[in-house]
## 1
Amino acid sequence: MEYTEEILVERATNTKIHDVDFSNLAFGKIFSDHMFVCDYEGGKWQQPKIVPYQPFSLEPAAKIFHYGQSIFEGMKAYRDADGSVFLFRPMDNCKRMNISAKRLAMPEIPEDYFMNGLKELLKIEKDWIPTAEGSALYIRPFMFATGHGFHASPADTYKFVIAFAPSGPYFTGKVNVLIEEKYSRAANGGVGYAKAGGNYAGQFYPTHLAKERGYHQVIWTDDTTHEYIEEAGAMNIFVRINDTLLTVPTSERILDGVTRKSILKIAEDEGIAVEVRKIKVAELIEAAENGSLMELFGAGTAAVVSQISAFGYKGKDYKLPELKDTFGARLKKRITDIQTNKIEDPFGWRVKVC
Amino acid sequence: MEYTEEILVERATNTKIHDVDFSNLAFGKIFSDHMFVCDYEGGKWQQPKIVPYQPFSLEPAAKIFHYGQSIFEGMKAYRDADGSVFLFRPMDNCKRMNISAKRLAMPEIPEDYFMNGLKELLKIEKDWIPTAEGSALYIRPFMFATGHGFHASPADTYKFVIAFAPSGPYFTGKVNVLIEEKYSRAANGGVGYAKAGGNYAGQFYPTHLAKERGYHQVIWTDDTTHEYIEEAGAMNIFVRINDTLLTVPTSERILDGVTRKSILKIAEDEGIAVEVRKIKVAELIEAAENGSLMELFGAGTAAVVSQISAFGYKGKDYKLPELKDTFGARLKKRITDIQTNKIEDPFGWRVKVC
Ligand SMILES: Cc1ncc(COP(=O)(O)O)c(C=O)c1O
Ligand SMILES: Cc1ncc(COP(=O)(O)O)c(C=O)c1O
């Protein structure tokens, strides 16, 4: 595909950057000065633009309010000691966005619109990239239906946006999770493998119920039997039994996480024994009981690795051992060091923007 | 709950009603002059308002664009020959809206806010109710997350809206459906029983694939085995085998349709043999082959009854007989006559508004 049109840039008249305490950032609460926007109309993507971050005006009958056509991505930008700016495997997010788009009957965004929009916006906003430990510029590409009407059918117009939020860590501290026995996040033949808005809304209530019982997150299980673990909240799940690192294969119910596949590659590179296969809850319980369950962690862009300290199942709680050196911490450090240009990147994942 | 606050009414300065061809209406494409709006903030529903139908202004980080917190209802208002205005079982929609709200971790709307808002708006917009055969004022209550942030968690603010669209028939003519073998609309333990936006977005792509093969709609099957029929597009499904009318029990995967339960009641009242039980695809095929399959129809507010003329399954097409008198047409007529105040309503379903 060719990038035939220049991006039109409208600069903000003043910056909000001086109001931001970059050493004390929450996750995804503050937004940078500009955003990238491109509208889809008449079967074509229109003029791509970078404009000041500002509200959208939408008809009450816009399909985003009624029929859930909304997809998104999550990625990060990093700045090294020299001030150079990097992305991490951005084409994977672009490709996954288009996988999501297809499943939700939304138009695919041309790769050059996505990548050039992202890079140009980053060049303009590079001072918004925090450098404190655990912080990064969180990048949110998203697309939603703007076309309107109450007929339950795909919209004819869409908006694609990239917005930035300088962010601190997603979770702070170790988490305590509940293995879900009743609710599910995805159906066979459903949209679980897509980053579709509706998948997240469906998780909130079961997560709320888990929180009321003292857990931070839910471990999702398959919706047919609830016997197999699938994801950890909005992260992929890893299990360490003795010295083997296990994770579940991706499927139509499970998101193909960039962090997950990066961890698999790094683990292999470091000589850690890895198995990608279905994991029964019963196997976890058995391993917890016989002392071979060493670690459990979630993996995703927001938290990178989120170590789990205990899990609940059928009214019983199982503690994970407190190890000094965890696979989780080691893998997180290696990924983060690659992302922030502190070490060599033998995998070709880092993309220098400027 | 008490209705403590008056509705604040801001009238439109002029009406669009004279531009509308009421004898030639599409479904859900034209909107009346006013809408009912109520915002949820700080843990409370705020001042309910009736305002001119107009766009909403929303932050790019508003959670509706990212995490799919959106629910809706669909109902209709009718005008009889004397100009009186009626609703049909409106409390059922209100209750179902709150069932949806709970599952999506959204605030429930007080019944009096819903009902009074709806009735007051109807009084103002009563001239927008079409009276042509097959037409009605389609009513769309909906709620979505306005609170913002990129953290995957429920929003703290929401907007509840009721908008009106004078509408003609949803489907025109008989439909040809495909029994789905691969895709699904709902998971066990998922949100299928809620009128959540995300459920509809997930249906569009499989429906598009079915359309490419010459079908109008998809018959959804259970996601575990695809052996049981569940819904007909965005309608509940009815099957007539010989002289027995069958429908599937509602479940966590199936919407508890107002039309479905009204049809069950009327069928019973008319002495039609009714069975509510699971229905295997294999049973449909067998009945089609041995000539006992008489009718197949979808039931929902938009189309009331949508008669199916043929269905496809595993590459084969099965035709339904062309009957002169169908249960579908008879039940549709009785419901519609009750809705439009043409006949007695022994069930107490009709609610006179003004
Ligand atoms: C459901 C779900 N699983 C897994 C992930 C992890 O994917 P990634 O590593 O690409 O961020 C995400 C996103 O963060 C997610 O939303
Ligand atoms: C999935 C689904 N099933 C069934 C129905 C029928 O419900 P009702 O008769 O209340 O309109 C609807 C809504 O129209 C629906 O969206």
Note: Chain A has two domains: 8-167, 175-339.
## 2
Amino acid sequence: MQRAAALVWRGCCPRTPGPWGRSQSSAAAEASAVLKVRPERSRRERILTLESMNPQVKAVEYAVRGPIVLKAGEIELELQRGIKKPFTEVIRANIGDAQAMGQQPITFLRQVMALCTYPNLLDSPSFPEDAKKRARRILQACGGNSLGSYSASQGVNCIREDVAAYITRRDGGVPADPDNIYLTTGASDGISTILKILVSGGGKSRTGVMIPIPQYPLYSAVISELDAIQVNYYLDEENCWALNVNELRRALQEAKDHCDPKVLCIINPGNPTGQVQSRKCIEDVIHFAWEEKLFLLADEVYQDNVYSPDCKFHSFKKVLYEMGPEYSSNVELASFHSTSKGYMGECGYRGGYMEVINLHPEIKGQLVKLLSVRLCPPVSGQAAMDIVVNPPVPGEESFEQFRREKESVLGNLAKKAKLTEDLFNQVPGIHCNPLQGAMYAFPQIFIPRKAVEAAQAHKMAPDMFYCMKLLEETGICVVPGSGFGQREGTYHFRYLCLSAAWGWSQLGLGKLGASYHRARAGSRD
Amino acid sequence: MQRAAALVWRGCCPRTPGPWGRSQSSAAAEASAVLKVRPERSRRERILTLESMNPQVKAVEYAVRGPIVLKAGEIELELQRGIKKPFTEVIRANIGDAQAMGQQPITFLRQVMALCTYPNLLDSPSFPEDAKKRARRILQACGGNSLGSYSASQGVNCIREDVAAYITRRDGGVPADPDNIYLTTGASDGISTILKILVSGGGKSRTGVMIPIPQYPLYSAVISELDAIQVNYYLDEENCWALNVNELRRALQEAKDHCDPKVLCIINPGNPTGQVQSRKCIEDVIHFAWEEKLFLLADEVYQDNVYSPDCKFHSFKKVLYEMGPEYSSNVELASFHSTSKGYMGECGYRGGYMEVINLHPEIKGQLVKLLSVRLCPPVSGQAAMDIVVNPPVPGEESFEQFRREKESVLGNLAKKAKLTEDLFNQVPGIHCNPLQGAMYAFPQIFIPRKAVEAAQAHKMAPDMFYCMKLLEETGICVVPGSGFGQREGTYHFRYLCLSAAWGWSQLGLGKLGASYHRARAGSRD
């Protein structure tokens, strides 16, 4: 075989391959004879296989784009090929992507970004002066005055200053230091980086990371990748998904048996659950973290998505600060935000930041070093983040339009959240907690025993079974609760409220109920 | 201490903090008394320290933005504060960022991106029709027709098709399958992802990754992060940095003693060395990888940067294909490209792709799963990549301007590369190999023994010592060869050719020579 191969490549072949790419020389013919290779490809064992691959990567799961979404893609292809179904399109209610659902970008943000992208437009009368001013400021802070240069690894300086100023305003004057601000490639990148730098130890000293159940499955995926230990604490479904410090304590105590718990992750407002934590709850959590020496991660990407008039977003940073210096000088806290949610919905730009306070002085250098290997986050995403934290203000030319667009988007989100909650609660077998914030409903579905058995016979989690049926019968793609975690014996799914087109949704929800009844009757497809 | 803290946070404080943020209640006063806390902060031990952090992250080094660049930043701040120096600005010749050096973006690319960013511009007469057509095509392939939606994790479909078409054209008809194309957040992201999925095993079975010395230090950094084993193979400086398969064989044999070598990384054109591999060399390498069962990574981000008329870029994919089916059906190959280099220099957009062929069928799903956790690469960067692979063609309205701009940029790069090479070779104590491609010079500097001793007394690598002096005396920031790897006892630095402003550079290079002579004379400062 080697000789044949050698003949082929040692220059016995003409340089111009034949129509199917293989050389046609006599050497190739001879090689084929030696190799006993038919014109079809021979296949030898691969270097990279399920057995040889990184086992930590193999263990990773990410349900938001997992098996049900792959199924949705297959169904879309079938629809394209003209195969008839009970529906004409797949509704992708699996992912928090507002613009994919038709939400319009904020005009001012896109104007500034267009000006930054193609600075010739700074001479165009079609753009307002306040947008031009923002664009010039950003460009002047970029290498070569261009979005095309790498920025500093921590991000463009003036954007970090703007982020710090935003945080200070948001938090009623609690100071934020630009030096503690790091621009990131979406919040996911920041969360992953912080977890990466934290995880160490082996055996029973391996770092434990406390995460809420249900959680946004980035956390469990990164914990798998890093071979850290996942420590679950359960949110209280009976109590609108509240976080109870006793439950934190329970989870921590049990975890100490088999790992070194060092990190506590909070998602507020919650994903998938949508609960907005009370100030008291946040204080309790901070005290717990201080007492038990836990590094706090506060995922606050939905800070602009609070619907319930009884709820208010309090940042962990602000509450920490107001608890006095014993806490505010000592609790290591990383808080995350993103351009993907809120009212701007700029998921595709992969913009985000983290504010990381009370780091050991030697650690900061390590963090920047780690970030520097990837050079910098996309500068266009940094520019988007700048507009998010530094939008038009009253008196500015673009303010009125900005205000209208923002209110329209947030009003639409709030309305759809409420309608979704109400509609789900009309369907027998489905119960939806009040939606306080974020973008999803995470209703509980009561799956009868026979349906559970049917699912198990199909080797599926019962809620995955339900969701697959829902997808096949109605075209609605939601993510089963098993992808986020849930108490044993309970079943849920996560549904993006924005995907509700109301006439259609009633049809869909009617079918949801019908699916339930059929499952209850024990029918299988 | 706990009681005081408890008093402070259990609601004894008024909600409105005082001017310096701390509550002013009597409880706080009592707490302070109990804690014996003065108004200054108390400091307790941190959770995240050099001892407790991820040791793999601690081991990471990335010289391109390492200590010398931090020093350059300090000097810039000193200049800003008015401190007098022998120069008025720092020249950042440490990083391959063309636009930071004043290179202009390609107009057509920025026009298409502006149209995608702010589609109102599709109605503007100021944009050519061919740019609008490209923009519409990209937007139609995006969710919600917006760059602000997440794309599929593998990237926008039509952009992957365009990349595959580009590869096929570039490779003279050798077919590329869009299904093997993955858009990435710069090439760094793709390289890191592939290495991550490959690394496994423990002890003497830990995955070994063969990398060239000198290398672009992303490779060593990622190998550190993943706790894989770095296996060095030395490029031949006497022979214009050629890759010699005997050296590959030597490195592999030695490595088998202590690890499981599974991966062979090639950078072509080379970074920092700039050599362009001959076709024969590529065939030799492919045969070696086939014979020794190594997964091939071909980093080809400089494929558009070839200067020497005696050299030609051959893609690994094309050569592999032309070696016949025993190779082309079996060798697992990942090839990488980026928007950061070439003639477009769009570093800040973090655009890139990888073409991965001959993966085990079960592995592809694992790869897409891993990518899905980060959702998708920035869609703006994907759009930039689309224009790179699908630029204006003859007959199109924008072609002439595009052609002129491209030729101007590449001509300028080629000229500066030659001038840099010639100038360095005029300086005693510096020898620069011919620059065949990429964007850097990597000259060897002959540091006399006394200077080496002086460096060691400062606990610095001798070339770091030299580069620090160069920075302090001339403001030129280059990266010492020790950051890239080099044969024991040799010293180099990497210099971005683009940063040569000619009048200035002669001054700089004159000083380079002066520095050398002073070092030779054994002077220390």
Note: Residues 79 and 88 of chain A are 7 Å apart (CA to CA).
